[in-house]
Amino acid sequence: MTRLFKELLASEFLVPLLLGFTFGIMCRIHLLRTDYRQYPTYPHGKIIQVALGVIAAALGSVAIPALLKENYTAVTFLTVAAQQFRDVRNMERTTLTEIDKQELVPRGGPYIEGIALVFEGRNYLVIFCSLVTTLAAVFFHWWGGIIAGIITLLIAKFLMSGKTLSLIVDIEPAEVRVEGKDLYVGDIYIMNVGLEEAQKVIQQHGMGMILSPKDPNAKVTISQPGQRQAILHDVSTQLGVYMDTGEPSLTPLAKRDMATGRLGVFLLPQVKDMEKARAVIGAVPILESVYRKPTKAKQD
Amino acid sequence: MLSSILAVITLNKDRVAGGAPIFFCSDQQEQQQIAFLLEKILDGMVHEVTADTLVIVRH
Questions:
Q1: Superkingdom of this entry's organism (chain B) (predicted)?
Q2: pLDDT in tens, A89-123
Q3: For residue B48, what is the nearest residue in chain A, using CA coordinates?
Q4: I want to staple A213 with a disulfide (CB 3.0 to 4.6 A). Which of A8, A124, A219, B28 is the partner?
Q5: Is ipTM beyond 0.85?
Q6: Is A193 on the interface with B (CB under 8 A)?
Q7: Would you state the pLDDT for residue A36?
């Protein structure tokens, strides 16, 4: 037993391996935030993600020592890792889609895809972090590994912070008008409400926002129905929603003014606070799969 | 998903006919009451087609 320990401690790669492993796990925990979205759920969802992070860290830190020991087949491990983490995306997608069916205001497909994508991506970042840390520790002693680890942690953080809507749109409060059966937010037509009861509730609790795109790219991005659904979902989770099942007349909705590309957002929050709503909409993530840049087209 | 008309609630018998169940009402208050009830039961939204006709649609 003691001999085994001695051999283990004598291994030239022990310190790099441990450093890579530790920084990999730190990277995963660093990127694992449970915010207002309450996803991943605490604590079971978190355990799953941390466990996968540990596996990723182990894979990442083993790669370089394996190469240096001329054990080239060991590197094929990384392909197994890619396969493994693609399943993470599938798992997250399936879970969220199931939950979405019972949501008062659903997230919508593109939002779910975005979340699933991030979960997969973070595991690759962990591998990257471990890999770089181990590499630096092998070549520049243990302190080199620590410095490299800290730098990759910062890079990972930077890579994983997405853009938000406030960068591409101006958000202005607008009046909700109920003219008989017609519902407007500002000058944008939203829907036809036939029930007088619902019209009264909307008049009382409705809140309107108009999102004006700052450039032609933004115009395309906010026109995507998935992005609009993400806005409605985020506002509903943070400000509550004045609706219930079996009340289809009371549904938050976002409609587009086709002439100008502006978006009229009709909301039914529990907390009717314009400033908060504005901040919440501004912080809605721009969905990666939705973001377009038509101005970058070659035809220009 | 296709939207479908689940019911029609009208004050004017002469203007409606066809596949969906039709409810005739004598005044607007009764019409609103039936529409309210049907909305909750059918989980479909009430839309005003003309001043005297409401339809329940599931979106």
A1: Bacteria
A2: 898 899 899 999 998 999 999 999 988 888 888 88
A3: A194
A4: A219
A5: yes
A6: yes
A7: 65
